[in-house]
Design a protein that fits this description.
The protein is mainly β. The chain is 0% helix and 62% strand. It has no helices and eleven strands. The strands form two sheets. Strands 2, 4, 5, 6, 9, 10 and 11 form a seven-stranded mixed β-sheet that branches. A four-stranded antiparallel β-sheet has the order 1-3-8-7, with no helix packed on it.
């Protein structure tokens, strides 16, 4: 069994910063790609950022230059540093992990989501 626990969401004024964390635990052999998605009310879930096991990253155009994704492989944790936040960044943020379990099954897992609200 694998669990993802997210933390770091909250309320911040426009121009402020937040740092999200997502820690994976359980029967894990290795983690491949780690991603952050977000879903605003009435909108589809969208990919925000991704990072491979080798550290390669990619970002949505809307957050490029403002958000930074990183990971600590020793802690099975992915982070999303969000700077220069805008009201349109308001959403529930979800982490997503693709991994091999300890029995070498290929699986995908989602975090429970954390609310980020940016006031104008």
């Amino acid at each position: 069994q694998v669990q993802l626990v997210e933390s770091g969401g909250g309320l911040v004024q426009a121009g402020g910063s937040l740092r999200l964390s997502c820690a994976a635990s359980g029967s894990i052999s290795s983690i491949n790609v780690m991603k952050w998605y977000r879903q605003a009310p009435g909108k589809q879930r969208e990919l925000v950022a991704a990072i491979t096991s080798g550290g390669s990253t990619n970002y949505a155009d809307s957050v490029e230059g403002r958000f930074t994704i990183s990971r600590d492989n020793a802690k099975n944790t992915v982070y999303l540093q969000m700077d220069s936040l805008k009201p349109e960044d308001t959403a529930v943020y979800y982490c997503y992990v693709n991994l091999y379990t300890s029995t070498y099954l290929y699986r995908n897992y989602w975090g429970q989501g954390t609310q980020v609200t940016v006031s104008s």
